[in-house]
Amino acid sequence: MRKINVFDTTLRDGEQSAGVNLNFEEKLEIAKQLERLGVDVMEAGFPASSQGDFRSVQAIANTVKGSSVTGLARSVTKDIDVAWEALKKSAEPRIHVFLATSPIHMTYKLRMTPDEVVRTAVESVKYAKAKFPQVQWSAEDASRSELPFLATIIEAVIDAGATVINLPDTVGYTTPQEIGNMFRYLTENVPNIDRAILSTHNHDDLGMAVANSLAAIQNGAGQVECTMNGIGERAGNASLEEIAVALNIRKDHYQADTGLTLKEIKRSSSLVSKLTGMIVPSNKAVVGANAFAHESGIHQDGVLKNKETYEIFTPELVGVSSNRMVLGKHSGRHAFKEKIVELGFNGTEDQIQTIFKAFKDLADKKKDVTEDDLFALMTEATVGEAVAHYELEALQVNYGTNNIPTATITLNVPSEGTIQEAATGSGSVEAIYNTLERMIDGPVILEDYRIQSINGGRDALAEVFVKIQYDGVESTGRGTAHDVLEASAKAYIHAINRTINRRAYNAERMKQLNA
Ligand code: KIV
Ligand code: ZN
């Protein structure tokens, strides 16, 4: 059985999804979960792209010890130097350097001849190798590159010190048969190929990213690059969960498996979905809400007689719980703490107290408090904003079919005390947002608003995601509450707090750079 290394790029390529903007705390929380999941390598960001990315790659490299942490760099010395500063304290310093190799990219984007591309790639790998023990080199747009040219450049970068060679289908253009041929050709035509691990990285523009990844594995790839829930540029990257479960369930066919702790998949998926605001479609393989739902009578009958008639793997394999009621309104703090630790919580006593209070409030309103509810409360408490400039203290909405909706809001502003305001709108949510806009000195443009329930049922928790533009900056926010209007207000306030914190961080950095 071959072991396939999992290279997770949720925090780099995944974060390049339109509308996704994770902050420092959110990235760190996802990194810790990916470590729990057991990914071999995690790409934490692109350190030279921004100060924010540098800071989070550095923090992840210094925190995560169970997975190798890497960062992306263009083939220029400045990027490699910055990546070294961010990654030098990681358990196994590793860099990911890339350069395009397809005729269209070399001619129009790089404006370089093939010989110049080979020279640049070799120089960058040598430069990186002088610092990093592990150097991954990627041939961007490999699937549209000429095979003999790929063989030449790969041989040269392996001689220069590359230990992993990644062959991306950057634009999601290739097919399983073509990618299989590419990997087989390179395995057979690069003389020193045994000195490096071949890696596959696929985008989903034609819906074939997972199939292409599996075909590459069958033809020699020893590493697969993917993201949780398949998030990423345009149509996204290959889904980690689909590849991992396909290899595990069809070991007989692929003769390969990953070393992942599969029962951490559901939690990883939920965390990434919550923090990115990218809702997982119900019919998504492995992690969608309907992935184990049997609707037709014939199927239900079959499953009752023998699960295997219609279920090729159990929900438990990927950590989907039966979502039974886990705690009730009479549960004490001790039982509560035990339960959240079992769910992977490792925060401070203060945070436990905050979540316990939120749990008690919820248990008063909701009959069954499930694991998913607790997970939502935990995420809200642990990955909140470092500084809350505005906090919702009270919200009242007057709505009637024949009245103009009016919202009255009290906010706690640590620098000013409490402030109160009221405004109307054509609907209740608009009234709330018009009121908040006055209070925070708008204008604010609401670009997106989405709502979903946790688990369903009339007493379910509501989860709201918003995308706003405030102060010329695009930002996202999320809010969870028992009431949809309160969740809506919280999501908006969260997005505002995130914008202010980001602005403050950038201003502080500018001051440091100018000093
Ligand atoms: O898709 C791609 O080509 C990439 C590279 C930077 C590896 O993400
Ligand atoms: Zn990519």
From TrEMBL:
Belongs to the alpha-IPM synthase/homocitrate synthase family. LeuA type 1 subfamily. The keyword Magnesium does not apply. GO terms for molecular function: 2-isopropylmalate synthase activity; acetyl-CoA C-acetyltransferase activity; manganese ion binding. Gene3D superfamilies: 1.10.238.260, 3.30.160.270, Aldolase class I. Pathway: Amino-acid biosynthesis; L-leucine biosynthesis; L-leucine from 3-methyl-2-oxobutanoate: step 1/4. InterPro entries: 2-IPM_HCS-like (IPR050073), 2-isopropylmalate_synth_dimer (IPR013709), AIPM/Hcit_synth_CS (IPR002034), Aldolase_TIM (IPR013785), LeuA/HCS_post-cat (IPR054691), LeuA_allosteric_dom_sf (IPR036230), LeuA_bact_synth (IPR005671), PYR_CT (IPR000891). This is 2-isopropylmalate synthase. Keywords: Acyltransferase, Amino-acid biosynthesis, Branched-chain amino acid biosynthesis, Cytoplasm, Leucine biosynthesis, Manganese, Metal-binding, Transferase.
